[in-house]
Amino acid sequence: MSMLLHLTGVTAFYGAIQALKGVDLEVHEGEIVTLIGANGAGKSTLMMTICGNPRARDGAIRYDGHDITQRPTHEIMRMGLAQSPEGRRIFPRMTVLENLLMGAHGRADAEAAETMEQVFTLFPRLKERLAQRGGTLSGGEQQMLAIARALMSRPRLLLLDEPSLGLAPLVVRQIFGAIRDLNRQTGLTVLLVEQNAFQALRLAHRGYVLVNGAITMAGTGAELLARPEIRAAYLEGAH
């Protein structure tokens, strides 16, 4: 498998506060890789740094063989990355259809229509809500829409930030099932940031543990699930 994303020694700051401390991370084409850690560990910062905001102060970020460390965000996204950020940042006043079309910017109509059909196979609920305003959807439907909008650009790498946050267990299973199906059926590469460590590690091929801005552990999803320190810190009572 070829390397799609490679971080080496990445540091990032918010003002005087160091949020990332020399992070090394690899994502190979076709993998689901998850990053787990407590609230405030720096997981979302890592996602944002890959996208160029905040900018990495030290180290290098390579995507598909290209150094993207200093590239502006809009250029990075044009290279085949898409992000579904934490907090389901959909356009609440726009309809489901309008939200999806925003994700398809720059795509030909026929290509966008084909991608939309794939999205509806994954999330049939969105097809039923096509004319409904995003802000009136349930939390689970809004999360589906946020992921679907990211998929409309046909990315090679999907960055998913806390997709299960605040959702009922049944909806969480639906969303994780959709991510698994996407990866198996289309080979889509996914970097997943998630507090629900049990679901994330079951889904992922490999995982990393982030503690206070530094990677402290890495391994396959199964290996990390079996580690007693992971079970004690992240999994007790989680399922």
UniProtKB/TrEMBL annotation:
Q: Which Gene3D superfamilies does its entry note?
A: P-loop containing nucleotide triphosphate hydrolases
* UniProt record, GO biological process: L-amino acid transport
What Gene Ontology molecular function terms does this protein carry? ATP binding; ATP hydrolysis activity; branched-chain amino acid transmembrane transporter activity
Q: Which residue numbers delimit the ABC transporter domain?
A: 5-237
**PROSITE patterns the record matches:** ABC_TRANSPORTER_1, ABC_TRANSPORTER_2
Entry annotated with the keyword Zinc-finger:
no
The membrane spanning regions, by residue number, are none
Q: Which UniProt keywords apply?
A: Amino-acid transport, ATP-binding, Nucleotide-binding, Transport
* Family matches, as Pfam families: ABC_tran
**Its family?**
Belongs to the ABC transporter superfamily.
PANTHER family (UniProt xref)? HIGH-AFFINITY BRANCHED-CHAIN AMINO ACID TRANSPORT ATP-BINDING PROTEIN LIVF
Q: What is this protein called?
A: ABC transporter ATP-binding protein
